[in-house]
Automatic annotation (TrEMBL):
This is YHS domain-containing protein. Residues 1-23 form the signal peptide. The keyword Signal applies. It comes from Thalassomonas viridans. The lineage of its organism: Bacteria, Pseudomonadati, Pseudomonadota, Gammaproteobacteria, Alteromonadales. Keywords: Signal. NCBIfam families: YHS_seleno_dom.
Length: 155
């Protein structure tokens, strides 16, 4: 019984330590476990033209966020050029950034424009964003320089 209890305590401690081992940058939209894009494979948006949930067995870190991939090939592609595949604005809502805000995103509300992945809060917000992608991207690019290091709660 003592051995079982000790194993449980150690397992819990290791899990807690592993979740603290990476701290996502302030300019990265990640959950409390530093998981980026809610576990979706960023490469799948480009290679499959659709978001696909990643697998816990294929991961990589970028800017402190943990990305999951659906297969080893996608993970390796990401590792060769993470900036190419990672969502813009640290995974925050592209429309929100245009409004000087950092909103969470729905991985299913996405678009690739000019070879870059953009995510939105939800599909309703995405509809508005799609009315002027170049204009909103220009505004977001400008705003991102000012807000990227500001915590979302302060905006």
């Amino acid at each position: 019984m003592f051995t079982t209890t000790l194993k449980s305590v150690l397992a819990g401690s290791l899990l807690a330590a592993s979740s603290l081992s990476f701290a996502a940058d302030i300019d990265m939209n990640a959950d409390v476990n530093d998981l980026a894009i809610k576990g979706y494979d960023p490469v799948s948006y480009f290679t499959m033209a659709a978001p696909k949930l990643g697998n816990v067995n294929y991961t990589a870190t970028y800017k402190g966020g943990i990305y999951r991939f659906s297969n080893e090939e996608n993970r390796d592609l990401f590792n060769k050029n993470p900036a190419k595949y990672a969502p813009q604005y640290g995974g925050y809502c592209a429309f929100g950034v245009a409004m000087e805000k950092k909103f969470d995103t729905d991985p299913l509300a996405w678009k690739i424009a000019d070879g870059k992945l953009y995510l939105n809060l939800n599909k309703d917000v995405q509809k508005k964003w799609l009315t002027d992608v170049p204009g909103y991207v220009s505004q977001s690019d400008e705003n991102w320089q000012d807000i990227r290091k500001v915590p979302a709660a302060e905006l």
